[in-house]
Amino acid sequence: MLTRTTIDRVVGIALEEDAPWGDLTSEMLIPDTATGRAELVAREAGVFSGADVFRAAFRLTDPAIDVQLHVADGTSFVPGAVLAVVSGPARGMLTAERIGLNFVQRMSGIATLTARYVAEVAHTGARIVDTRKTTPGLRAFERHAVTAGGGHNHRFSLSDAVMAKDNHLAVLANKGVSVTAALQGAIARLPHTTHVEVEVDRLEQIEPVLAAGIGTIMLDNFSLDDLRRGVEQIAGRATVEASGGVSLDTVRAIAETGVDVISVGALTHSARALDLGLDIRIF
Questions:
Q1: 165 an active-site residue?
Q2: In sequence order, what are the residues at sequence separation of 6 or more whose Cβ sits closer than 8 angstroms to the Cβ of residue 148?
Q3: DSSP notation for 55-76
Q4: Is 39 a catalytic residue?
Q5: Active site residue 175
Q6: pTM of this prediction exceeds 0.90
Q7: Which of 120, 130, 199, 241 is catalytic?
């Protein structure tokens, strides 16, 4: 998902946005012969993500800049840890530093938050997954960070699976169309490899959906008691996903209801950027 082509395209746009006609300050103040060295240092504990993205910010600015990563994506670190060393032409280092930091701080923040959710549901059998609530244009970056934190990815885009949500079901109801028949018709037209998931918000919606033979049913904003009832009712006939109202305070109890998957929008839409520093010494 996070290919070099994707990284170079997104990082290139970010660099162009930040220095559309060059880095005026560095060009005016820093001799073109100056070199520099910097350490990427953790100012708080966390889980690292964004190694290739961080490296690309410097590589695309000046290929002569060398980035040595001391940790791999998914590695936990403590405050004061040196995560990477950057060296080379000083102008390019100064131009790229903010973009490199922006990405690695954001991605490490997501990985760190994801790791906390994963730890909360340990030994329950529930899988923590992300959602499409990502920053536009940065979905591949943010979802990579989720996996670095030990989480899993939901469908990447609208093109990847059928996922009928409440608004889809509401349209069918308004048209007087049977949910079971509509889903069966869709499944009949789909390739056998395409997954079908349906979101429900009431227990009585479960049987008509299961009757169509779908693969996953999402219990959205169910109480804990109703989640347990839903898991018992479904009884292994489909993968059970819980969604809505999920936080670090509630995720353990949700996992203990027996659901298979817990989707958490907060992994990407509410993660705080991690505090990482890059202090450059010029020679």
A1: yes
A2: 47, 48, 49, 73, 74, 107, 111, 114
A3: HHHHHHH-TT-EEEESS-TT-E
A4: no
A5: no
A6: yes
A7: 199
